[in-house]
Amino acid sequence: MNTVIRTSGLTKHYGRVHALDGLDLDVAAGQVHGFLGPNGAGKTTTIRILLGLARATGGGVSVLGRDPWKDAAALHRRIAYVPGDVSVWPNLSGGESIDLLARLRGASTKDAAYRGERERLESAFQFDPRKKGRAYSKGNRQKVALIAAFAVPADLYILDEPTSGLDPLMEVVFRDEVARVRDAGATVLLSSHILSEVELLCDRVSIIRAGRVVESGTLAELRHLTRTEVSFAADDASALDGIPAAHDAAFADGRARFTVDSDAVASVLPALAQRSVTGLRIEPPSLEELFLRHYGDASAS
Ligand code: ATP
To answer: How far is CA 120 from CA 65, 126, 196, in A?
Structure first.
């Protein structure tokens, strides 16, 4: 499979701060790849280097087969970028800002196909394009960048915390657009610290901490690193006796609970069936748990 983004041993030092400390990231063509980490982990620094806006201190980087520092102008026509905190031109209307951003990527904004897409997206995101930039809230500024990004086809979408400031209904619209461009064959790098968003959208996830990728894989692969919680209605703790591979067994409030390695869930089912348990709940681990496992206290920073 083609690799659209590859970094190897990427470093970026700001004086004594090692924002990136040997980052290895591979994003294959046609994937939605989640880039997950707490504030200050190095996500934005990585994205700035991928866009050719910052120069790496060391290591290798290629985007769509090119060096982003040398070929930024050519690459920008193939990349749609949405930052987490969008500034718009205060004296331009929202519609004019969208058109300007689209033209910067080489779109012809008089073109009927572009205008149709812009209108479709404005209606989906419930965006009024007639107000001046200075009147827009953070969420509306975010919509300007999202509409400009999705109105013009790109090979690669780099989205840096793109839904900050959007309400939940708009997040659904955002997810539909990501699915649409993925189905059209594009690649998406989605930086986020919203785990549920990443879980719903991403084929693969890379978890970054202190400037390095600490875990990378499909959600199914990463889930193997954590345990699934099983619980059922019970009269007392004896209901938990003799269940194979059970960990952390506990009884409280009329329910027996235990955890089991996620790839061993099937092996406990016969024991549960024998007990004719009722009210059975089997809950796969969330990325939240994965995250906590990696960051512990650091996630609070
Ligand atoms: P956030 O979600 O807060 O944006 P992030 O994962 O994107 O976090 P970065 O913004 O890449 O993290 O920052 C990584 C580290 O590099 C942080 O310690 C940050 O303070 C530092 N850093 C980033 N840019 C600069 C800069 N221009 N000068 C000095 N230090 C910087």
So the answer is: 32, 10, 26
Taking the model in full, what pTM does it have? 0.82
**Cα–Cα dist 105/158, whole Å:** 14
* Strands across the sheet containing 227-233: 247-252, 255-261, 227-233, 278-283
Both tokens assigned to 147: 């509409």
Closest ligand 1 atom number to CA of residue 41: 6
Cα distances (Å, whole numbers) of residue 95 to 85, 143, 195, 198: 18, 11, 32, 29
In short, whether 39's Cβ falls inside 6 Å of ligand 1 is yes
Question: Quick check: CB of 42 below 6 Å from ligand 1?
Answer: yes
Both tokens of 243, joined, read 């269940």
User: Tell me, what amino acid is at 188?
Assistant: V
- pLDDT for res 275: 85
Owner of token pair 């520092």 = 69
Distance 177 CA to ligand 1 centre (A): 28
For the stretch 164-190, pLDDT in tens is 888 888 999 999 999 999 999 999 999
181 vs 44, 96, 103, 177, 227, CA distance in Å?
A: 22, 24, 19, 6, 33
Q: Give the closest residue to 181 by CA, choosing from 83, 78, 271.
A: 78
**DSSP bridge partners of 20:** 12
Q: For the chain, state the CA radius of gyration.
A: 23
Which amino acid, 49? I
Q: Which residue has the tokens 């900050």?
A: 164
Contact in structure between 255 and 232 (CB atoms under 8 Å) = yes
Q: Which residue has the tokens 């779109």?
A: 107
Q: How far is CA 86 from CA 99, 104, 170, 178, in A?
A: 15, 16, 16, 19
